[in-house]
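Last lecture ended with a question: if I hand you only a sequence, what can you say about the shape of the protein? Today we answer it with a concrete record. The protein is D-alanine--D-alanine ligase. Below, first the input exactly as provided, then the predicted structure, then a couple of comments.
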Amino acid sequence: MTETLSVGLLFGGESPEHEVSIVTARAIADHLDPARFTVRPMGIARNGVWAVTGDPFARLANRELPERGEHPFLPLEKGSEATLLPDVFFNALHGAGGEDGQIQGYLELLHRPYTGAGLLAMAAGMDKWITKRLWESEGLPVVPYVGLTEERWNRERSVCLSECAKLGLPLFVKPANLGSSIGVEKVKRSEDLTAALGRAFTFDRRVLVEQGLDVREIEVAVLGGDEPLVSKPGEVIVADEFYTFEDKYLHGKSRTEIPAQIPEELTDLVRKLAARAFAASDGYGMARVDFFLERLTGRIFLNELNFIPGFTSISMYPKMMAASGVPYTEVLTRLIDLALARHAQTTRKQKGFQSGSNWFQGT
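The predicted structure:
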């Protein structure tokens, strides 16, 4: 009998997407192939402490805040400092801490493979403003926008408002480093913009203001490395004025359609743009690439890229992959195999350097 790999399933975290991550991780745990993997849930509580004993799902769902252990360089809960490392980490952390390079850097220090993209891609992909700038440098189409830092907003508010006004109305205000539509507002009147920006800056010191277009929301799932599998496009048919957090996870008024009902040539274009956007961001493992299709003109714009998309029962990523011939369990297996392959590649690289001289030893 083949020995199974232990999979450290990381979820929770300190970001506003803590609850979404719990639901994502439960679904992943339910679908990992038991013939190949042994799941070890590792819940990161809202205070940043890793809960690894008992039932971490229940503990985080009950809002438990474990006591940190005595070793200052470890985030593990007290009494668990000697916990063995898993063979591979499956990162199901949404938002800051898990999707911005922080956990990737820590796991690299532990010399353990982990699913998804590396530190650079995650850090850039998490920040919607940086992502847009990367895509613009590759000639990829993005919605007209203004990026603002909190420091600049406080220093020259009238200039910032003037720049935003040039985009016209309506506008969308978004914290640059949040997902699940948290903190996103649609602004229809210019006099409401200042307050909307103030609320966005409570989440992040970097905020995007985007031109509000009349669009259809098209999404594509990407899986792989240099030559990734790109799924059939899906469409989110939005019930409200945009796809809100409440609609995504609480009310469920919007619906999805896979494949999206768009012309074949547009399907081909979207899939090509998704692959280019993934590569431009140094993507690896998986991503959901979101597009806007302007109703009036038929123009396609890249909206954003999510390197750790939702994996709940209603999430678009696994649905689009399934419609493209890759069922949920196989997606998870491929992600772990990709993690092992990238780790092996990295391990083969030359890390050290010796000059052959004692110049660095001093006098």
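Comments.
1. The chain has three domains: 5-114, 144-211, 215-342.
2. The domain at 5-114 is CATH 3.40.50.20 (Rossmann fold).
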